[in-house]
Design goal:
The structure is a homodimer of 460-residue chains.
Chain A: H1 9-13, H2 21-31, E1 37-38, H3 53-63, H4 79-90, H5 106-120, E2 129-133, H6 134-146, E3 152-158, H7 163-170, E4 174-179, H8 190-202, E5 206-213, H9 225-237, E6 241-245, H10 261-267, E7 275-280, E8 293-299, H11 303-315, H12 321-331, H13 341-366, E9 372-374, E10 382-387, H14 400-412, E11 414-415, E12 417-418, E13 429-434, H15 439-459
Parallel strand pairs in A: 1-11, 3-4, 3-5, 5-6, 6-7
Antiparallel strand pairs in A: 2-8, 7-8, 9-10, 10-13, 12-13
Chain lengths: 460, 460
């Protein structure tokens, strides 16, 4: 019988705090009848963020294409949804029940390339697009491809989304930490990058890529164009590939615009840096996490290397078809004049407006709590909140921020993720919270947190 | 810029012939206007195998739950589909757009356990079920868990479905080949298992598990109960886990019944062998490959080991929700008396009857071709066809069976997979064909193959 000490130690070592022990405890409390506010995960639909009607109408018709023959559907679905479903169905022999080509359905890869070209006003190629089961799978494929030996390493921000650390651990590869500059709104800092890279090399690590998350998870920061240019120049000078996690690209609340690495790199005419960009329908105004939709776009890479991505995907056959179709609908919204256009625009604006309002409340109100500070969230769905608490010189088995988050959960029912789950500058303490709950719940959350924090400080 | 020699060599080495170079060539010919019969992959819906109406009605309603409020749907959907969709929707806060728990949706794990208990008349536990993106992901997770170091190995049949060889290559683990007994209808042979294991150990390999595919892919064989008992006893004596790939369990055409490893192991009261069984909705009368639905059931394993599976899954968040729901519908068909019952039964019987007829034609007709022989397909969707051709003593870069399959494709438009993609006994030559095309096309295929084979023999 297989025991814990028989199995792959890398799996035991891998950590993914977003679904870690504090969440387990929250679920336990919930089963005991406690009311929990889950601010641990970016899962918008559980907080009544509604799916876009257009998207779901088309997917519903494609699940049951017999409907397309029925007159009665004209009263239940918008005319452009019906037309779109028919158009798609005619291009999918076998429908959603059939395996697709390994790299994804052809017309969807074309539509994704057109979307990138339109978004960034740059050329984009369908045969450099890979459709995946969520952006996570895309990121994992890139890392798996780039890690040739255990001495290879990838630069990862601190704090980071723990997909990156967990995947590097599973692959027995080196994680090269670089700190984001909290004092400068979590931008990347060139000196820090150079220092981190030099240290890794001195330790015998071969750095092959740098991961950048923009807009930031867990930081909620949006990188300036200058910051992106700096990273591209850094990557070019040090012959690093770039893994750009851009899944929050349409969660933007402040004055900064989103610039894709693809756009900036193209405009800088940099052709020696391999770029891997990921995007998905899980976030933004879609929030379609459950559909596991995602894509990878690759630039500055040979055909034969891209073919290896496709082969890797072929071992799993293909990404789920409904997720692929969701990606298609993400990149081809209804056009002006089509029946769904107004509703789509209204639903989209309402969701983004609501998120913007909540980001403002989180930014304003948390900073009013003595001993708590936070960079104003400019993007994504998160705030990475700094706690002004004494950090003991000797580190306990349970990190200080985890103790805090556990106490917060037990006292208030608020479930957040300790900063140590993402990494943080030594001597600092944080937690990540989403701002997805309804506004009134967020206001309530802030007031409960304030009361808790003051009491916790006095205890310590 | 990343070049081929910069990347993970394990990816370059991994091979997945089901979507390999012959398929690429077939697609090239198709683009040039040639008509191709794709017999390379078990993708039923591309051959007009229809999805079950009940399944698609429920999934369609769940994609667009607004429909559940509308009176007009009673004319478009069966009443039990509507009731089922409402029942499911009420248990899914956030609907199909939300992440689920990492191990899968709770009520679906319960339903899977009940299904196993009913199928096998044995106890089954929901908290030993993991819902996955297709059975492939489940198999990969098991292998990843079991491989602790590169000296660890897993026994894999020859011929095998190349998911296993590819995954072991990617994980830098050892594949321990054991030959299936073609002369005995592709059953497992005890002497061969003992010999293969002893040889592996002598080579410094630590064997940890044996993979069994039943019904067989590519063999089309169904294992007898005695054969399964023998394997369990072998695993118990040698302290091996069993990975039972049972995805074709309801593709049964001959007189043999399907016995699950779980059932036989339970009835033998074997409690020291860890068992990992996988199943999916991609095959059988469902054929829902595109939905990437699947589950893993684990037996004789500690809580803390199962928790590592769940953590591994959590790094990818969760399996796609529509696939999870498809699994739910697979294990809970309409009941006698419900509105969809008759249609469901009719659709199911028709598909299975049709596959049975085609397995008979393939078995009967191929054996009539001089120089070709095949074990009568008893299950799955495949025949592994033996070619009586001279094998040169010196192996060419392109294996003989690949030359044959390529010539077959160029001459006749029939796309099959060379035996070397699955492995075969040295000195033998095979190809795998599905019997999914419509009956008249299969009859046509056999006659074209006959003509081709006779000409090919005369050439050689």
């Amino acid at each position: 019988m297989i025991k814990l000490n028989d199995i792959n130690e890398k799996i035991i070592q891998a950590e993914y705090a977003v679904r870690g022990s504090i969440v387990d405890r929250a679920q336990e409390l919930e089963r005991q009848g406690r009311s929990i506010i889950y601010c641990n995960i970016g899962n918008p639909h559980t907080f009544k963020q509604k799916p876009l009607t257009y998207v779901r109408e088309v997917l519903s018709l494609l699940e049951f294409p017999n409907l397309l023959e029925k007159q009665a559907i004209t009263n239940l679905f918008h005319s452009d949804s019906i037309a779109r479903a028919k158009y798609i169905y005619n291009q999918m022999p076998g429908g959603v029940g059939a395996y697709t080509p390994s790299a994804g359905i052809g017309f969807i890869r074309e539509a994704v390339a057109e979307f990138i070209a339109m978004r960034d006003k740059i050329p984009a190629l369908p045969d450099r697009i890979l459709l995946t089961d969520g952006a996570s799978k895309a990121a994992q494929a890139v890392i798996q491809l780039l890690i040739k030996s255990p001495s290879y390493g990838i630069m990862v921000p601190v704090p980071q989304y723990p997909l990156y650390s967990a995947t590097l651990t599973l692959l027995d590869a080196k994680k090269i930490d670089y700190y984001l500059d909290e004092a400068n709104g979590w931008q990347l800092d060139l000196d820090e990058l150079e220092e981190s890279l030099a240290k890794a090399k001195a330790n015998g690590i071969t750095p092959v890529a740098i991961t950048v998350i923009n807009p930031g998870n867990p930081t909620g920061a949006v990188l300036t164009r200058e910051n992106i240019e700096m990273v591209i120049d850094f990557a070019s000078r040090h012959k690093l590939a770039i893994l750009a996690d851009e899944v929050y690209q349409n969660n933007i609340y402040g004055s900064k615009s989103f610039y894709s690495f693809a756009k900036v790199m193209h405009e800088l005419k940099v052709e020696d840096v391999s770029l891997f960009s990921i995007y998905s329908m899980s976030k933004g105004y879609f929030g379609e996490c459950g559909h596991r939709s995602g894509y990878l776009e690759v630039r500055n890479i040979d055909d034969e290397v891209f073919a290896q991505f496709v082969k890797l995907q072929s071992i799993n056959l293909c990404a789920n078809t409904v997720g692929q179709l969701a990606t298609y609908l993400m990149v081809t919204p209804p056009k002006l004049g089509e029946a769904s256009y107004d509703l789509y625009a209204r639903e989209k604006d309402q969701i983004l407006q609501n998120l913007k309002e909540k980001s403002r409340v989180i930014g304003d109100e948390l900073n009013k709590i003595p001993g708590i500070s936070v960079s104003y969230p400019e993007g994504a769905m998160y705030a990475f909140v700094k706690l002004d608490l004494p950090v003991p010189a000797k580190v306990d088995i349970i990190p200080e921020d985890e103790k805090y988050c556990l106490a917060l959960l037990e006292e208030t029912g608020i479930c957040v993720v300790p900063g140590s789950g993402f990494g943080q500058y030594p001597g600092t303490l944080h937690f990540r919270t989403t701002f997805l709950p309804p506004l009134e719940e967020i206001i309530n959350l802030v007031s409960r947190l304030k009361k808790f924090h003051i009491a916790y400080q006095n205890l310590g």
